[in-house]
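Here comes just one.
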Amino acid sequence: MLYAKLQSYVGEEFLIKALPAQLSNFPSARGIRVMKCPNNPLIIGELKLSEELYQFSIIPHTELQIENQVVTKETILTNFSRIYIPCKECRTKHYYTFILPLREPLKYEAQRAAQTQFNRVHDKVLYAKWTQEDKEMLKKLILQFGYGRWNKLQQLKFANRTKQEIKAFANSLLRSIVELLVNYDLGAGIVNLIEENPDDPYIETNQKDWELQNLKQKLISISKRILMLAKIREFIKKFKEHQLKNLGIKDKSQLKWDYLLGFIPSSSFYSQRPSIWWTRKHDSDLIRGVYQYGYTNHLIIKEASDLCFKDLSTSQNYQEFPFPETLNKRVKKLVQIIQKFDGFYDFDNLAQSDDEEEKSWSIAEKQALFNLLCDYGVPIGVDGRQNWQELKDKLILKINKFDKNLNQLEKMVQTIRTRCEQMLMKHKEKEFLESDSSDLEIEQPPSSIGEIREEQGDEFQISYSDSQKFSKQTNMLHFIRKNILPQNQALFQQHIQQVEKELLIDIPEYDPKTHDIQIIITLSQTGFNGLQPITLSNINTIMTTEQILNRIEQLCSFFKKIRDQTNIKRKPELKDDQQKKIKPNSTGGVNEIQLPYQVSTSLKLVSLGRIIPSPAYHSEHNLFPVGYKSIRTHASMFTKGKRCQYTCEIQEGSDGKPLFKVTSEEDVENPIIKNSCTGCWVHIYNRINELQEHKKSKVTISGTDRFGLLEANVQRYLEELPNAEMCSKYKFKYRNVAQDF
């Protein structure tokens, strides 16, 4: 386990995994080599732990200074104690900081390990019963469902194993992860999950059992996932207990899942929604789905009969199921929101904190916004994000003295969308009750069957037909702008032959390749109310508004099926000529990849460059290698709606600082050179913004993201470059630098 660490003033970390431990000046099986100096003694000192008091101390073997005081005998060490080893020969000063874990669980684990030896005897008989395949399956299921889900694990794969057996091997897995973890906070959290009783069997830690050596770079993300699933388990458990106790529910099938996230204010859910139609109901069912069917099992979650996502496949509202990566991000976001309540979940309370915000809108303003959304939807900018400024500009044309900011506008759009979704759900429940009462010939109370009325305090009310119209038209516009039109209609062009074969139309000389794009662009630009009969290009045939709408519905339904099939699949494997060729080095890292390397559909890595360990060429989160080059595909600065390639480079500046250069393929003679990568891309975004009809008042962009420096694979390769370990400010994410030392 991890007891503490020593950190040098240049950022090197020396992990203390066993005690007592020698601080040495040479490689030692028992010690930690903290220096390489021929003029100092081989043994510097010895670290000890008093397990009764959980107190660390150091016994000096040579001259040492603790907190600027010379010590010659055993001295107590506290958190952040400063240790100095005097040396006249080395240019590097031997300053170290003694750092303890940030939380108590590791302390508890150490005491428990020392005090409960009777239940720490390795159960060889039990160990022999489990094959390597059993252990691999257990590891896989824990990463899908989390630690502590013993009933679920028995149900899925371990029906012939007892819960105690499963738990013993799961504990061994968690301890193995902690032993390799460098992150103290995560290690403490993992240790705190371990459940053990005196009579439980014990399986000792063995890295080979779990094949974690090959997963070192992923241990942090694995640990975060285990802790996230533990939080979901704890949250669902408390919800079930509350419902069964306070509502008198005896059958778990009667749990009111709509209350799961009901206590959280609506404003907490606005950011990072997987789609514009996404509501609190979808968030609740996503959390339920992960708990019930496993993390990343999105296809099962989508088709589960007890979740709301099953309706997407039959919906005529073009609500495409989000990508797996998008759903994973949403789950993490929801867990972060839940964690803010620190275990105090008021499941009885349905949050009303946004009521005052809605009251600040007049009835006329809400009605005008509703009508605009039904007609035009929420525009999409060149960056692929919702363009709230353009929506506001259009709303100003309809309302005099409209004074709401973009944040208020976004909240009201989501409020209207939620009210429409609730109305549609009420209608569905009403139909179910009516059909149920008819089939069973049971008379239902009058209140349960009848006209649906929205219960709102103001006069702005949304009917069922309004909700249908809103949902269908806004989702159709969003689907067209987000899926069919981007990247020069790439999705459309890819499937044009299939469109021509399957989507027939009764208009002579109609050319889908030309005319389908014409009517789709017309709808996107004018909205539904602006649609007029149009003359088809090249054939001078007039297409009526009804024909246009029918054809667009055909196209949206067709491409939604294609998109749904795409979204439930994992990312395709790279082709042979695109695969990175990796040679392991002595630290298990990466020495060589085949370049250029296609990182994503819009980013190609051309050169990694070389590390200069100067503070100016790295930060806490990024490395800036000289010679680094990537190619980013992005919107053009010169032609609206067109995309082009930008070559991004990092060069060595004359003043000891890096220069960042971006060259557009449309203007190679005039590269953009700035002192930061963000400076380059802000310049580009400002130029793109000037081309737009509805301009943003403020442009924000991450230059490091556009350069590709935030991509996980790129960061892995940069961290393995020579001299990367000498970048003192940089915090490594994938390379175990402490172990390298």
Summary: Residues 103-119, 436-457, 568-591 have pLDDT under 50 and may be disordered. The longest strand covers residues 643-652. The longest helix spans residues 406-440.
